[in-house]
């Protein structure tokens, strides 16, 4: 039986047109979250080069960082290693009127920490056991939790890694940890499947987004988020600029003379 041909990659013009529509809706969602003091967590997981960063950028580039707050934590410090595992994540949980986006999350323990040996098998097993309970506690406390896994294929990941090697603007994205994850593809696959089996709960299910086509993945992701968070339109009074006061008028450009100005090279 012949294998279906891969779908054609989405054209940039079509993508940008659809993205603009979704970003308008995200602005409406933002006002609804603020007005109703909602608390939302969106976490992004997936293999290295799955497209998490670009998806998060498309999601947040037209909204307020005070409402859509991105959290991308570095490796834990010695002090953080002595804390409860989830402690350093929970301090970033949203207050009323906030959407917190985790660019990788507590699920590091089920992925990179487990595969690379940064946690013990007992710690990994304990995490998988307790995680659904902790997430249920957060949800029962009023938090909306959306868990997204970006699934990239083996060949597409290799193509993206090679592109990073050759592009000076993207070489910073390629770390020794990335190349090691490339080598351990099947170890990560097994870790992913263990994670899904233990944490794909009824109250906090995983949603998988195919990301070989980055543009389609971004649109599908944003569309899913908009459907998952019930929202409406918040009526706003139209802003009208007042007349500038002429009281105390003076030439405010003269006062800049003698100061250092940046050379206008463009």
What would your notes on this structure say?
It contains 10 helices and 5 strands. The protein has 266 residues and is α/β, with parallel strands linked by helices. It has one domain (12-233): 3-Layer(aba) Sandwich (Rossmann fold), CATH 3.40.50.300. The longest helix is centred in the N-terminal third of the chain and has 25 residues, at 12-36. The chain is globular. The model has no long low-confidence stretch (mean pLDDT 94).
Brief overview:
Belongs to the polyphosphate kinase 2 (PPK2) family. Class I subfamily. Helices cover 44% and strands 12% of the residues.
Q: Classify the oligomer.
A: single chain
The spatial strand order of the largest sheet comes to 2-3-1-4-5
Q: What is the CA-based Rg, rounded? A: 23 Å
CATH homology-level superfamily: P-loop containing nucleotide triphosphate hydrolases
Summarize model confidence as the mean pLDDT.
94
Q: Would you report the number of β strands?
A: 5
> Termini distance?
59 Å
Q: Per DSSP, what share of the residues sits in E-state strands of 2 or more residues?
A: 5-15%
Helix content: 40-55%
Key features of this structure:
alpha/beta; 12% strand; 5-stranded parallel beta sheet; 266 residues
Topology:
Layout: H1 12-36, E1 39-46, H2 52-60, E2 68-71, H3 78-81, H4 87-90, E3 98-103, H5 112-116, H6 121-140, E4 143-151, H7 154-166, H8 176-183, H9 185-199, E5 206-210, H10 214-228
Parallel strand pairs: 1-3, 1-4, 2-3, 4-5
Helix pairs in contact: 1-10, 2-10, 6-9
